[in-house]
Design brief:
- With 256 residues, the protein is of the alpha/beta class.
- It folds into 2 domains: 2-86, Nucleotidyltransferase, domain 5; 110-239, 2-Layer Sandwich (Nucleotidyltransferase, domain 5).
- It is built from 7 helices and 10 strands.
- The protein has helices at 36-49, 66-80, 108-121, 154-164, 184-211, 224-228, 241-255, and strands at residues 2-7, 11-17, 22-29, 58-63, 85-86, 125-130, 133-139, 145-152, 216-221, 236-237.
- The strands form 2 sheets. Strands 3-2-1-4-5 form a 5-stranded mixed beta sheet, with helices on both faces.
- 34% of the residues are buried.
- The model has no long low-confidence stretch (mean pLDDT 93).
């Protein structure tokens, strides 16, 4: 079985793919201090609780935190006897082209999302990922990654408000009852929610105008459904976009 790992700045997601579907998904806080032994004890306990008997014999990793990859590679070698495929390394081939400035670095998560989006929906896409940062990735008609935008994440902005302004409390993002807040919490929630709705709409509109072709907007990440409930910003939401992309990349490298 294949263990797909998506390591983000805040959380790391482990998913087991049996060749046809994901049979289990688990999430853990990202930490470069976590050892391979700790990963293994945690993972095997969860596999046992889910009744998963088959052994992992393949791994694929996407990580925006380079320091975490070492211990994940040790996990693969020590406990599963396999060499993981790591997106962004020279030995990991992609089924898409990357057309950006020479020497420019592109986050592996953005490449994985591009691969996944093209495989599921075809070309001419805008992929909006609500993570620690809110990223906009543009997929050309042939599936190539051609750039995008990066904005601060929703929760990051809320935390910055709380930390930088002594009188402002920590609040959770939610759909505001009205644009005009009647108290500090409501004012902050309205500003963040409608501010980000406007940010997403404006950036997507400008990308569409610059791209000069009809485009689909695909969203992923935990907060995307919240925005979709009240304002139509996306054509569709795909919860397992990154994980699907990892399986596509893994299969592509097995076939070549």
């Amino acid at each position: 079985m294949l263990l797909a790992i998506d390591c983000g700045n805040t959380n790391t997601v482990f998913s087991i793919w049996d060749g046809n579907q994901f049979i289990s998904n688990w999430r853990i806080a990202t930490s470069h201090k976590r050892t391979a032994d700790q990963y293994y004890v945690w993972l095997k306990t969860l596999m046992s609780l889910d009744g998963i008997q088959h052994e992992i014999d393949e791994m694929v990793i996407s990580s925006t935190v380079p320091r975490v990859v070492f211990n994940l590679r040790v996990l693969a070698d020590k406990y599963f006897g396999t060499r993981p495929l790591v997106v962004g390394r020279s030995d990991c081939r992609l089924p898409i082209l990357v057309r950006v400035d020479a020497g420019a670095a592109v986050g592996p998560d953005r490449l994985v999302n591009t691969v996944s989006g093209f495989d599921l929906f075809g070309g001419d896409l805008i992929i909006v990922d609500f993570g620690t940062a809110t990223t906009f990735d543009v997929v050309d008609s042939d599936g190539a990654y051609i750039g995008g935008c990066i904005a601060p994440g929703v929760n990051l902005s809320l935390e910055a408000l709380h930390q930088a302004a002594a009188a402002l409390p920590h609040v959770d993002i939610t759909i505001p009852q009205s644009v005009i807040g009647k108290n500090t919490v409501a004012c902050m929630q309205s500003g963040i929610f409608w501010g980000y709705a406007g940010l997403v709409r404006e950036i997507c509109d400008r990308i569409k105008s610059e791209h000069a072709r009809p485009m689909k907007v695909i969203s992923t990440g935990g907060l995307a459904p919240l925005f979709q409930q009240s304002v139509h910003l996306f054509d569709t939401f795909e919860d397992e976009l990154t994980m699907h992309g990892l399986t596509v990349i893994h299969q592509f490298n097995k076939d070549i």
